[in-house]
Amino acid sequence: VEDDGWSQFDGWSVFTSPVDRELKLAQRRVVNFLESSCGATVEHKEILLLRYSLPIWMAHINNNGMPKFNQWLSATKENADISPYDLPCKNMYLEALKKLIGRSDHTAYVVITGLLEGIPMAKASLDQLLALGRELREQIHQMLDKNTVLIYPSHPMTAPKHHMPCFTGFNFAYTAIWNIIGVPVTQVPLGLDKNGLPLGVQIIGGVNQDRLTIAVARELEAAFGGWVDPEEKYKMYKYEPIRYLASPTLRNSGSQTSFPEFVAAENEAER
Fold first, then answer.
1. Interatomic CA distance for residues 143 and 145, integer angstroms
2. Spatial distance between the Cα atoms of 151 and 238, rounded to a whole number of angstroms
3. pLDDT along the chain (271 residues), means of 10
4. Which of the residues 133, 175, 183, 233 has the least number of beta carbons within 10 Å of its own beta carbon?
5. What is the pTM of this model?
């Protein structure tokens, strides 16, 4: 968060949204907790290839020998016994026209994705993106051993209003890229932001290190309260979180206590 002198790379590119400040602050609290309470050594990494998450994902999806997205869209109850490999690609230009007059069964984002899939990709560009994917995979695999996890945003913004994802649909790249990299990921809820919207972060581990991502997630869930019903008017973080970033411990009534314990004490008082 550049405002307080601490910067981090969030994977933003021309295709996706930059990470919301509230989510960056939540990620910073996670880092502080792992350092102060768990004794973890934290290194800030700039993985520049993550800027190409979306095109890398699209290149791999179009080159993995699986049925095309537009073939899956052609699946119906009537042709359920036909293999997706044998289904024709849906005419997405016609589907786009139907969407304009309110006759399509698909969301705008699905239609846009189908149209993009139909655009032929030059072999040179495809090969280049596949090579970038292999380079990114090797970089991540070398970085994550059996005792290392990567903390990464699950999404660049908190829960959007209805229909907004139609205009920011490519933000799924923040999670989709890890399917291409082939590593385990655990999403951890971190309570609510100042507007009562859920916060969360991804814990990414090395190959076959599911146990590690789950173990870290359980520690964070215990420390930050886990999932909180957004319907409740009560907020987990009563005060602006940035107040507590200066030190991993705080003074409350003359005694030193950790941040999660301090929040819990305020919660009881508020109740």
1. 6
2. 25
3. 38 79 92 92 90 89 78 87 88 92 87 81 85 96 94 90 81 92 95 87 95 96 85 51 39 38 44 43
4. 233
5. 0.71
